[in-house]
User: Fold this.
Amino acid sequence: MIAALLLLALLPSGAVAQDSKYLAWDAATRTVTFELIAGGEGAKSPFNFNGYIDGEANLVVPPGVSVVMNFIQKDGTPHSAELIADKAPMPNMGGEPAIPRAYTSKVVEGLPQEATDVMRFTAPDSGSYRIFCGVPGHGLSGMWIRFTVDPAAQEPRFETPRSG
Assistant:
């Protein structure tokens, strides 16, 4: 416990904490499994992924890995997920994903509460993306987090704001 506190004290201001309760890594198969929860509890807004809004969290993966995103819809309002390019302007609704197969079913309509879906795709060589709710207006209302393919990454990590 003391060692963990000491390590946190040594992190530079603005550093991020690692949140791995949603993340699993199989190094042998180079597979990242991520639990993507739409409408997580305890967030600033019901329009969130895993409790984070407006790009507050970032799923970082190495290039070429297999990505399995298990989508779980917890909110009473329909939601979806799609990986889009991290660029302005942000679209009002879903369309063509930036990475093939990186989207849930019913991207624009959204999935009902307690629905699940699985996105399976291969991470490209590099790039910055957004995991974005494609239901009209939801992404613009803050329902997106970051997805980064980092050539320097040796294993995945889920970066979240340092609590404090």
Notes: The first helix runs from residue 2 to 10. The two ends are 17 Å apart (CA to CA).
